[in-house]
Amino acid sequence: MRRLTRTMTFTAAITLASCPAAAITVATAPANPGSSSATRVALGAAMRQCDYSRTSVAPRLPAVPPPTGTGSALIHRAGSQVVAEVHLVNTAQPGMHYDVGLIQAPRPSTAPCGPGAPGTAFTGLDLDAGGTGTVTIQDTVRQGTTGVWVIVERPNSNSQDPAEFYTSEFLVPM
Fold first, then answer.
1. Which of 55, 133, 135, 164 has the CB geometry, 3.0–4.6 Å to 154, for a possible disulfide?
2. Residue 110 sits in which domain range?
3. Is position 55 within any domain?
4. Structural domains counted in the chain
5. Minimal CA–CA distance to 63: which of 158, 160, 166, 165?
């Protein structure tokens, strides 16, 4: 045990000496994207209500495979606008179309949050032949908004429930 501890300490010292940037580089998320910096948020396969709470029962259709993509959003505030640059990678679904929404919070779970609802902005995202896509979406920040989140959905031709969905892992403070 003592030898293992010494070896690990020695290895860590060599790593820090040969690559000092490794000791300094730390990923941080600012508490307020109202500054010039942006907050990166991962997109996870979680279905959410309009108030950002997770649904207790996510839609499951036997013919639809589970989500296979991964993504993130870079969210920042630019004056009275909130801007989200959304990245999605799904190599299993090249050329697929997704609907991307930017939703402002707080909002009651009974309030709609689809396209055209107050405090929301939506656009389309089409993956390229390699299964990657990026889209920028923005909206005017409404009075009383304390946070925003992103939803990415693939429409389902056989149901009103999405065939695939991704949402922000956390509510980004405004």
1. 164
2. 39-173
3. yes
4. 1
5. 158
**106-143: per-residue pLDDT in tens?**
998 789 999 999 999 999 999 999 999 999 999 999 99
> How far is CA 83 from its chain centroid?
13
Domain assignment of residue 101, yes or no? yes
Query: Is 26 within a domain?
Result: no
Percent of the chain with pLDDT over 90: 61
pLDDT tens-digit readout, 40-85: 999 999 889 999 999 877 566 555 566 789 999 999 999 999 999 9
Task: Give me the half-sphere count of Cα atoms (radius 13 Å) on the Cβ side of residue 77.
Answer: 19
At residue 170, does pLDDT exceed 70? Answer: yes
130-151 burial, b at 16+ Cβ within 10 Å, e below that, comes to ebebebebbbebeeebebbbbb
Q: Is 53 helix (H, G, I), strand (E, B) or coil?
A: coil
Distance, C-alpha 5 to centroid of its chain? 39
Cis preceding linkage at 106, omega within 30: yes
Residue 4 resides in a domain: no
Q: Dihedral angle at the C-alpha atoms of 51, 163, 89, 66, nearest 10 degrees? A: 100
- pTM value is 0.76
